[in-house]
């Protein structure tokens, strides 16, 4: 505790939130200690106190996205009982009720760009992908899970670049239906036929 004033237990959280706000609005290249401190409304020294280097601050901020990404389709996919349920969950996560906001998508895009230069963020992206694939493989073959994951990220990128031209839900649904249909008729080399 500082003399005359208690420590701010939320300061570290505010710094991480501010880092994501700066990255979402101005890009990861704009994320400096000074800019983040101003956004968080904290002294500049607080950023270096909690995060020894800027890379660690950025990586830690990106790590907090895991909590927002996982619920996109995790629970609906776990609850899916039919192929139609699976397709509904995927459509909702792409452009429906559980889809990320444009700000979220911009953060994911910035994360991918930064991951091309940062091994730590590249590792984090691989972890996110593996977590996504684990969920998808509960209902789909490995190949279909990978195709769905790639397609969903691609459509999210499309949304970020074309916010004035929304995705056509029926097109999204037809594409997922085709992938799910292929997965249920394909043969899994380890476990035999997928469920019908």
Please identify the structural class as seen in this structure: mainly alpha
Helix content: 55-70%
Average pLDDT over all residues = 87
Count of individual domains: 2
CATH architecture of the largest domain: Orthogonal Bundle
Biggest sheet record: 2 strands, antiparallel
Report, as a whole number of angstroms, the end-to-end distance: 62 Å
Q: Which strand order spans the largest sheet, edge to edge or round the barrel?
A: 1-2
Shape: elongated
Low-confidence stretches: 1-6, 187-196
Using only C-alpha atoms, the radius of gyration works out to 20 Å
Q: Which class of the largest domain in CATH terms?
A: Mainly Alpha
User: How would you name the CATH homologous superfamily of the largest domain?
Assistant: Tetracycline Repressor, domain 2
At CATH level 3, the topology of the largest domain is Tetracycline Repressor, domain 2
Count of DSSP-assigned helices: 11
Percentage of residues in strands: under 5%
Number of strands: 2
Please write the string of helix (H) and strand (E) elements.
Answer: HHHHHHHHHHHEE
């Amino acid at each position: 505790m500082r003399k005359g004033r208690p420590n701010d237990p939320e300061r570290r959280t505010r710094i991480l939130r501010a880092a994501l706000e700066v990255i979402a609005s101005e890009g990861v290249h704009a994320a400096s200690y000074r800019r983040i401190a101003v956004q968080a409304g904290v002294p500049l020294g607080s950023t270096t106190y909690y995060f020894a280097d800027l890379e660690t601050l950025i990586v830690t901020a990106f790590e907090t996205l895991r909590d927002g990404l996982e619920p996109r389709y995790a629970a609906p996919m776990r609850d899916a009982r039919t192929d139609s349920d699976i397709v509904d969950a995927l459509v909702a996560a792409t452009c429906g009720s559980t889809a990320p906001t444009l700000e979220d998508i911009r953060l994911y895009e910035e994360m991918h760009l930064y991951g091309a230069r940062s091994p730590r963020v590249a590792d984090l992206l691989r972890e996110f992908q593996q977590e996504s694939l684990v969920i998808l493989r509960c209902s789909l073959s490995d190949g279909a899970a990978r195709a769905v994951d790639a397609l969903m990220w691609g459509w999210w990128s499309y949304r970020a670049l074309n916010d004035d031209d929304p995705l056509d839900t029926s097109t999204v649904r037809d594409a997922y239906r085709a992938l799910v249909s292929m997965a249920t008729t394909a043969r899994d080399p380890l476990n035999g036929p997928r469920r019908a």
